[in-house]
Amino acid sequence: MDDAGPLYLDHAATSPVRREVLEAMWPYLSSEFGNPSSHHAAGESAARALDWARSTVAAVLGCRASEIVFTGGGTEANNLAIKGVALARPRGRHVVISAVEHPSVLESCAYLERFHGFEVARLPVDSYGLVAPADFEAALHEDTTLASVMYANNEIGTVQPIAELAGIGRAVGVPFHSDAVQAAGWLPLDVDGLGVDALTLAGHKLGAPKGIGVLFCRARIPLEPVLHGGGQERGRRSGTQDVAGAVGLATALVLADDERKAGADALGRLRDEFIARILAGVQGSTLTGHPSLRLAGSASFCFAGTSGEAVLLELERRGVLVSSGSACAAGSSDPSPVLLAIGVEPELAQTAVRFTFGAQIERAQLLAVADAVEASVAAVRGIR
Ligand SMILES: Cc1ncc(COP(=O)(O)O)c(C=O)c1O
């Protein structure tokens, strides 16, 4: 957008590693490089760092350190939650999820259906992407093994009523997992306040590197490992731990959570102003997702009469990097299942563009982006 290079508005895809995070990680990539399972000074130093990371994450979540499992990212944590809880639980073969979950949840459930005889209820959502608590309650029965509903959606930013849904699950003894990969840094993660039994986080949405994640799983919920081997992470996830990654994730989580407490309201107001500008300035634009129950750093639209890909390219020419649909489904030209689930027509779904920003965004930048969007949509419509 200016001499500083393009303006990156695709934080829901991934975020840059923060300097403080890199600095916290550096010793564990260099001088303190030991394997935390080794019984010598180098290993013990790495083990202490891992303990620090675990208790730091646990403090943000309000849980015990022993309930934190470090994984190789959000996808792995979701696989471990869904498959691990489902396969460990003696009760039933029935899983309840929403229709708008991330593929790592959807595909884990499809695997349980295909290979383990589970039945999966995929709850519809309303036009904002919300699960109705009454539908959720009706879907649970005495054979339900596990329920999983994401905290906030990666494509449309809609925030689900997690505490209410988890409470419904708790009342009938169904363990409740939530994928909080997109929510982390924007919304409270206190697991007791939310009432969840399991929660997924991913470092790279928070200013830590890709390839490190967390699964919180309550001590009383049995968890069958997905990765078998040396028994690290109390047998729940074998494989030598990424100590530097864990330290990075913990550092990023604390920074993001402190900033959230200080600034989420102001950022939400900026987002609202940006959304209002686009809706007023770009004819034929519609907001996807909920107008207020949405992540403070997320604005997503359809621009009728365009293609999302073409708008993305025009915006890139103007120095703004965004996403058309979801980067997680990269390579797919099918309309987004999330947009179809909220009732967007397939043709309109192809026009989707998502803007996701970090906490450092400035008002002037977003207003300039709104102008760039107007020009880009006009250019695409002119071409088409
Ligand atoms: C909601 C959600 N869950 C899970 C994931 C997967 O996380 P990872 O990329 O760390 O595997 C993503 C990634 O975009 C996501 O947005």
UniProtKB/TrEMBL annotation:
Keywords: Iron, Iron-sulfur, Metal-binding, Pyridoxal phosphate, Transferase. Gene3D superfamilies: 1.10.260.50, Aspartate Aminotransferase, domain 1 (3.90.1150.10), Type I PLP-dependent aspartate aminotransferase-like (Major domain) (3.40.640.10). It catalyses: (sulfur carrier)-H + L-cysteine = (sulfur carrier)-SH + L-alanine. Residues 8-365 form the Aminotransferase class V domain. Signal peptide: none annotated. The keyword Protein biosynthesis does not apply. SUPFAM superfamilies: PLP-dependent transferases (SSF53383). It comes from the Bacteria. InterPro entries: Aminotrans_V_dom, Aminotrans_V_PyrdxlP_BS, Cysteine_dSase, PyrdxlP-dep_Trfase, PyrdxlP-dep_Trfase_major, PyrdxlP-dep_Trfase_small. Belongs to the class-V pyridoxal-phosphate-dependent aminotransferase family. NifS/IscS subfamily. This is cysteine desulfurase. It comes from Homoserinimonas aerilata.
